[in-house]
Structures are given as C-alpha cells and as structure tokens.
C-alpha cells in the first residue's frame, strides 16, 4: 500500500508540475489547497489518523450503496484502533430508522459508559446517516446534531446539513466506466449540447424544474435517456439538484462537463473541502427557461470549456468507490475531510445528571 501511495503521489505531483514550478499557476487547479499543502497533509493522514468505533446498539446494515461502501471500507482500514486513547475521532454507528428516543438513549449510554463524549460534547465524534438528522429538543440528540460530524448521502434532506461541519458522500455509480488517467480525453465533435437522464421517480422537482425539463425535451439540442450511456456524445451533462446525481462523477470522468440546475446555493456538495467545484462544473438556475440555459452554455468559450472539462477529469478519480480502497479514491478523500475536522475543543470534565 505504501508503494502504491508513493507512486500515485509522484503521478499527481508530475501532473501538477506547472503549479509547483510557478508562484502564480498557469491555470486554475481543481483543488482548494495548493498541491504542496494538500498531498503532504494527505500522506500524513494515511499514516497517523486513528479512529475508534463504538459497538452499535444492535446489529444493522446501512441502506445506500455509498454508506455501505464507506462503512465496509472503514472497518477494514488501517485507520481503526482498539485503543480509544490514541484516537483522533470516534465513530458512532446506529441504524437509519432509530427513533429520537432510541438515539437519545444511545448517546446517553456513551456519555455514561465512556469519558470521550463529555470531553468535547461530541465534537470529536462522527456518524453516518443517509438523510441526516434533524434538530430535536432532546439534549443528547441536539449535541449529536450540533457538534458531531454528520456524513450523509448527497444531496442531503433540506435543513439537515450544517456547512463547514458536515460531509456528504460522493455518489456511487452502479456501473462506472474504467478509470481514466487524470487528463482530459481527446476532444471530439459532440452531437448534443446537453444530456439529461430521465428521472421518472423523482418527486422533488419544483414547478420551475418541471417546466425547464419540458422545454428541453422539445429542443433537439438536448438528449434524454433512462440511463446515461454514451455521455461523450454531449458537451454538457445536466443534473437537477435533488434528482439522480449518482452519475455526476461518471460524467466528469468521461469529459462531459456537469451542469447542476438549482434555484439556491448548494452547501452540501461532495468533497467540498477538497475540490473547487466552480472549476469543474457549471451552476445555473431553472427559472428563466431553456433559452437562458442555452445562452449560458453556448456562452462558455472553447478555452474555458476545455479547462473545466480537463480539471473535471482530473478530479473525477476522487469520486470513484473501489471494493478495495485505493489511494486518492472516494473513501480516502472522505477520510481526508474527517482528518481536516480532527481538531476539537476539549472541555473540562463535568458530571451529567
């Protein structure tokens, strides 16, 4: 594993030589942090990060593919420790159908049976919940909600995500294409301006979303299908925020620039602490119809388009889930986001009634 990590680190650094060799980068990077900071810190995480997991209150299984993959990868990773005194963070496992009362009792038991929760009021703990948990008047659940790091599916139920604290899992595409190298694929003529997957099961579309989709379906410049097949035929891949976003990483991977249609700012983007989403995707509103959408997309010149596409392909490998995790893949980048949250205020010990 160490040899693989070193090799991939060298690959990334060689690809990012322009950023390292010039004080002012020649082009934007897909990363929020400079490579000279990101990759050494990532390597430190792989060798030092330790997590202690509590026993679950009962036997259960996570219900979404990304949750299941993350949990299985965590349990079989080098990050777990049986010594809670060397742990940076503590994992609190519980099933998604736990009631507020059951969850409160579980946190109460952790508080009474272990010293670690009270040291930070849960701020060095994290949990996995596909839709996130809502605010509740119960003291135990409220501390879990406000202080512990929540890892949820993307997109998270509205109101259940706290920016700068919580994390969303990169969507797991059921049939990903073979992983490509981090450089843009050869440019070729596309047949359509945009492609959108038909999401007949979605119940979350607003009226403006539905109107826009209807206009797009009548426009020959847009293609629709029940499954994203040859994404390379389209210049852009369009997603409704709140719809099926499982293939957003797949779109980036094959060089189809993601366009996220949303009527509000998005704060729960996957890997938001790692990648610069403004450099790898386009965000547009639905209210002004297909005419405005086409104006925005057509107004993206070839140079900017190729930059977005290339940086998207470079970042796409961080959205790939592997049965056996590989360096820099989705599992490791979620772990890196947890690593960034390892610093927590430790309070003076106090007794709770």
From TrEMBL:
Its main location: Golgi. It is a single-pass type II membrane protein. The keyword Hydrolase does not apply. One of its GO terms (molecular function) is glycosyltransferase activity. It comes from the Eukaryota. It is found in: Golgi apparatus membrane. Keywords: Glycosyltransferase, Golgi apparatus, Signal, Signal-anchor, Transferase, Transmembrane. Residues 1-21 form the signal peptide. GO terms for cellular component: Golgi membrane. Residues 46-288 form the Exostosin GT47 domain. PANTHER family: EXOSTOSIN GT47 DOMAIN-CONTAINING PROTEIN, EXOSTOSIN HEPARAN SULFATE GLYCOSYLTRANSFERASE -RELATED. Belongs to the glycosyltransferase 47 family. This is Exostosin GT47 domain-containing protein. It comes from Actinidia rufa.
